[in-house]
Design goal:
The chain is mainly alpha-helical and about 130 residues long. The protein has helices at about 5-25, 30-50, 55-70; strands spanning about 90-95, 100-105, 110-115. The model has no long low-confidence stretch (mean pLDDT about 90).
Length: about 130
């Protein structure tokens, strides 16, 4: 059995982080998981072209899934910090960088690392 390449390790880790957040948000239905898989396929090509970008693939896959969910279902992940006003989605920061986090720009706070939404009280599904 061949060892898993660093590229595949990065892709599998990013997939797992985004899936964990989808599960925490109770939106990990089959069609949503397919969105993750589509992003992984696209980002595999991207990181093959730029191997130094492997550490950025988690933030990119999170953004891809967030964009795809917005187009099909609504905002995700909803901010668990702001209890009043219109529901709004968290953003991924940095937009291209290692160690991505979900951030509420309205409150100006880091909410959770990508993959750690389960630790946030009040995280809910798209609207």
């Amino acid at each position: 059995m061949d060892p898993i390449s660093p590229l595949e390790q990065a892709l599998h880790a990013a997939r797992a982080l985004v899936l964990a957040d989808l599960v925490a948000s109770q939106v990990a239905e089959a069609d949503v998981v397919s969105l993750v898989e589509e992003s992984v396929v696209q980002r595999r090509w991207w990181v093959e072209q730029w191997p130094d970008g492997a550490e950025y693939v988690a933030c990119l896959i999170a953004q891809d899934v967030q964009d795809a969910l917005l187009d099909r279902y609504g905002r995700w992940p909803l901010c668990p910090v702001c209890g009043s006003g219109d529901p709004h989605a968290l953003d991924v920061e940095p937009e291209l960088g290692p160690d991505p986090h979900w951030v509420c720009h309205k409150a100006g706070v880091k909410v959770a690392a990508v993959g750690s939404l389960a630790s946030c009280p009040g995280e809910s599904s798209p609207s």
